[in-house]
Amino acid sequence: MISSSMGIWNYWIVFLLMMIGLFLVIGRKNFLKKIVGLAIFQTSVFLLYITFGKITGATPPILNEALDKVYSNPLPHVLILTAIVVGVATTALGLSLVLRINSEYGSIEEDDISAQDLVDYHDEIETNKKLKSKFVK
Amino acid sequence: MTDILIKNLPILVVLCPLMMSLFLVLISNAFISWILTLLTTVLTFILSILLFQEVQTHTYISYALGNWAPPLGIEYVIDKVSIIPIIIISSISLLSTIFSYKLMPFDVGQSSISKVYSLWLLAIAGLIGLVTTGDAFNLFVFLEISSLASVALVAMGAKKDKQALVAAYNYLIIGAVGATLYVIGVGLLYSITGTLNMEDLSNKVKEIDNNRALIAGFGFMITGIMVKAAVFPLHIWLPRAYSYAPSAVSVLLAATATKASLYILARILFSIFNISDDLIIITLNYVILPLSILAMFAGTIMAIYEKDIKRLLAHSSIAQIGYITLAFSIGSNASIAAGFIHMFNHALIKGGLFMAITSIGYYLQKRITINTLSGLGRQMPITFFCFILCSLSLAGLPLTAGFISKLYLIKATISSEGIWIVFLILISSALSLIYLWKMIEVLWLHENTKKIIINENPSIYISLLIITFLNIYFGLDASLIVNNSESAANTLMGFSK
Q1: For a designed S-S bond to B393, which of A24, B399, B402, B466 qualifies (C-beta 3.0 to 4.6 A apart)?
Q2: Which of A48, A90, A117 lies at the smallest CB-CB distance from B187?
């Protein structure tokens, strides 16, 4: 009874983490917080895989000991090792991009940055207009 | 010797760019790194041609990675279907490497060239790996290799325009969410079937009906891949990423990246799952079909109102992806063949258009909007000539490759879906003439007010000429593409029976 509800409990945590992560990615305007959200989102998937692989009361899959017993599936763990590496690479690339954005724009807030881009765009239009009026003269 | 080579072709075609990309980091000379990149892409192209010949005789080549037998070990599969994206990727990467010779130093600066080429080869290796692998989880790894490398490549555009950083950041975040959704889907499928091998998955999936985890897993996988393929409402990352990337990178990405993901989409829809399944029929008719029609119109209309030329082409890519997914969503053999034909032709067309536009940007040494083009057509006859031919091909005029894909798409649509979709296809092609004409008009009919003089550079227009020639050649004699696409569609549908 307890063990079966523990199994479901894991899925609830996965669900919760997934929603928190996805909300941070979509809802936050801060570039750093988005990356944190992405990391949480990916972590929830890791937990999902680990939960699939676990059988309650099963032994670890060691050849000599687990031959005639029920043993947990080791493959999801291995897959998740790969996924963790990919996740670390994604986070590292994201953080380095945030660093560059901060040094170029002086901010990592989405609103600030799009406002700056808009200002640049209008400046360009203004200079184009001035150039045109010069040509007319 | 040749035996061993032939046997190991499926892995060599991936390893060749992958290993060279690791080696290139050590080299600091810009010219040497370009030469090595060129040699690698030539070698990859030759290997993929060998694979193509091999597939003609054997039809199905399976390679067990590390000698672990397929259902358990990772399998690399080359069949009539996956050879099409392999040929697309290897040929376009060769052409765009030639094209990048002058443009890459101009876009990213001399000092970081070799690192950029390292990423360039990594992206190519990721894309080829993506289409060769027959293992659902290995696919995710290649998906991330290619997308992380292309994010870094897009970010290299920051030397010209700092907005490239934000574009790359958005590409990274959205792409990572997409890939993670795909992994959730694979996990759910694994939890009920206990296998990751695609062929094995398709056998096991058939035995299970009406399982909720299966349906959820399918939904997650499809959504994740649709993000990567930039299918209409999930395309937000694409216009910015393509328009702020360095010139040669936009050529490479626009012609190959989404094609590989579209191939995966077809693979999931038709080979892992079964076309006669209710789940797939509902997805095709009520999700992918309406979205593709929306994409056709939304992409075209956004392109009509766009002033920035690179972004205009990116918007038109969204519309073209709509045509391909439309062809898939009809779900008959002929229409899937039409989808593959258009996949190939669109790589040629969009590659050519991006080459033409970015080389104009190089000649002018600045970012091009529609107004900066005025009257330049007479200054650069060769580039302009290629640009016109590729535009006509995009609009689907006769004697060009674009016509062939529209023809087969319409033929397949009439026989299975009815006349109203044909009308929609024709209307949206006609609309695409508006933005193409807008550019051609400015280039040719307007006055060259600023008296700009351009000297065209052979090292830039050579690959543009080749790709334009291919556009015309495959418009005149399409039998090569058509035959291969048809056998690809038959293989794909046969897989699921």
Answers
A1: B402
A2: A48
